[in-house]
Amino acid sequence: MTARFVRTRKEMEGRYEDVWVLVDEEDDVETWPHDAELDLVGKPAPRLDGTVRASGRAQFTVDVRLPGMLTAAVLRSPVAHGNVRSLDIDAALATPGVRAVIGPESVLSLTRSTPLLVAEPQYAGQPLAVVAADTSEAALAGVRALALELDVLPHVVDAREAVNEHRFTGDPADDSRGDAEAALAASEVTIELSVDTPAQLQVPLEPHAAVASWDGDSLTAWVSTQGMFSARDELAAAFGLRKDDIRVLTAFVGGGFGAKQGAGFEALAAAELARMTGRPVRLVNDRHAEMLDGGRRAATHQTVRLGAGRDGILTAIEAEAVVAMGQGGWVFPVLNPARTLYRCADVGALTFPAKTNLRAQNAFRAPGVMEGTAVFEQAIDELALALDLDPLELRRRNHVDVDQVSGLPYSSKQLLACYDRAAELAGWDRREELRAPQADGLLRGLGCATQIWWGGGGPPSHATVRLDSDGHAVVVTGIQDIGTGTLTGAQIVAAEELGLPLRHVRVVGGDTGPNVYGPVAGGSQTTPSVMPAVRSAAAKVRKTLLQLAGDVFEIAASDLEISNGRIRSHDGAIDADVTEVTGKLGSATIDGSGSRGPNPDGFVVNTFGCQIAQVAVDPGLGEVRVERLVAVHDVGRIVNPLTASSQIEGGVLQGLAFALTEELVIDPTTGVPVNGHLDDYKVPSIADVPEIVIDYPNLPDVNLPNVGSKGLGEPPIVPTAAAIANAFAHATGRRPAALPLTRARVLETLA
Ligand code: MOS
């Protein structure tokens, strides 16, 4: 390896950080060109773990059962703000079956630091104590024995009230450029739109969960997380241990959607209780706890004012967002779409992070950008209406080739192609016909929205590949497959590069043990970060293999090639199974390791797309049904169209629910969420799924390392709600001032 350190800018969900990265110059494999003839990349492949998943043999964290394992139960604050007056730890400890209790006074046993629990809860559902016991019944009995008494303190859960009282989690942000106010005043046409967006819960099917087990000072933790390496590092820091003392196992994850970025409270508390008792401890959120304390996309109040010339060219954008942050968290880039989607010199952008007595908001699939797009792209449609211009045409007229904030060009951008393809697939040209009175009495409309998001990935990300004498390869990655099919993507890329059949490549992930680092599965960064590392590692193995084949066949390695498990010479004289070479390895193996190089300087890497929704509104019942949704996204090269389409379907469904049904409702009097259960918090079911039509430009981003793929985890959720709301407005001529478009809200709007 030719090692070098380079300094590079790393992006994660719109946040940039300058980092040192270890680069191996031998990793310099050229990106497959767009017309490369690839055997496997770009062809649909079923998930390598599909059978294991479908047959129920996949072991999720919640399925882990160890001998002697204790179960933990959490006492949570019943009020939005309070002060613990008494907590009877002794009574809990005296409860039959209870083995350990931690409360607000407890410190971690190894470091005597980092209290996990508080005595002055700031939101309903905040953990106050945790009991570990032989059975879950005993643990719950221990929680009851704590006989919590607390004083109730005043709370604020309304974001506007918090702003009026100047309660912020940080300084309000001004990301303005130019003079939007003056530009707005001088504009020929102006519109203003205010829309409230709901607090939306991630609702992973597998709740936050951890199982911890110590062996001396070595900890093994099964954690339901998107970031097993962050979980490992957090546990190491909390317990003052070497990273290598900790092994995090994350074989299968039942969804995270942003809410599971590291160890989480669950792994820390389980590890502490396991330390105290010398027994493995399991802590799994029940559904209500998950919905109170698992996280959420914050509610926002947004106002957008737009100015344009009669020609449809934007002249001014003014956007404001109040974000109901809860107790903290990073402020999502809600106004990023307003700042970057279209060409405009004069942009006002003010974000107010309101501090409320709710859990700190955390990431949820395209955090900020999704809820910002949901409002901004509705405003764009209002402008189209005011200009009497086709909404897609208005978007085309304001298309940009360079990032409007930095002035840098995009590494690639196929947005215009996305518009064209989406319009064709959706039948955009029969848009007005759709509005004609229908035999079924429903009002129909078509609405579109544009998507922008990051998703370029970056270092660090590593992989190793080993080729055995039987001609089969093993890829070791640092990724946890949170349901996206990432491991299958790694299999495809490695098999392509190695020239082996898919089934001859096995992929190991979900384990920090090998210390082959992979990134948090978030920020749409996994595919663009991991696949190049996998390909680099495989390229080294391929090179060695061909050299050895040259020895065996007494021919120059450069005259040989390998595909589908056969080694052939260019002149056709040699055509041999790969095992004719690898078989001579005996017990030796061919090994290669690869790392992900930095993205090139001088570009902004974004993903783009367009979705078009067709809705049918029942004006009598207030029901909005999405009949068809067309999603066309530019994410560079598609590695596996099958799992890519799964990503789009999942994103679209979550966006659809944000538009139509999902909203965490908080009782203003008590500050307690009133629908923290799956029966009254409405996630979509199979009956809500529309026809989803998917396509991609599928052109590699040649400025990205060696595979040319961008991420697809988040892009599909970004424009869905706006497209649906725009279709609703098209169908009905009305635009509600808030999402979701519940039946009550629709009936009010149409009345
Ligand atoms: Mo992030 S919301 O974990 O992709």
Describe the structure in your own words:
The protein has 751 residues and is an alpha+beta fold. 26% of the residues lie in helices and 24% in strands. The chain contains 19 helices and 27 strands. Strands 5-6-3-13-10-11-12 form a seven-stranded mixed sheet. Strands 8-16-15-14-9 form a five-stranded mixed sheet. Strands 17-25-26-27 form a four-stranded mixed sheet, sandwiched between helices. Dioxothiomolybdenum(VI) ion is lined by residues 13, 226, 258, 363-365, 367, 522-523, 713-714.
List key phrases describing it:
751 residues, alpha+beta, Aldehyde Oxidoreductase, domain 4, 7-stranded mixed sheet, binds dioxothiomolybdenum(VI) ion, 5-stranded mixed sheet, 19 helices
CATH topology annotation of the largest domain: Aldehyde Oxidoreductase, domain 4
Order of strands, widest sheet: 5-6-3-13-10-11-12
Please name the fourth-level CATH homologous superfamily of the largest domain.
Aldehyde oxidase/xanthine dehydrogenase, molybdopterin binding domain
Cα shape: globular
- Unreliable residue stretches: none
- Arithmetic mean of pLDDT: 96
Give the helix/strand class. Answer: alpha+beta
**Biggest β-sheet strands, sense, barrel:** 7 strands, mixed
The helix fraction, in percent, is 25-40%
Count of strand segments: 27
Strand fraction equals 15-25%
Q: Compute the gyration radius: what is it?
A: 27 Å
Number of helices: 19
Q: Which ligands appear in the coordinates? A: dioxothiomolybdenum(VI) ion
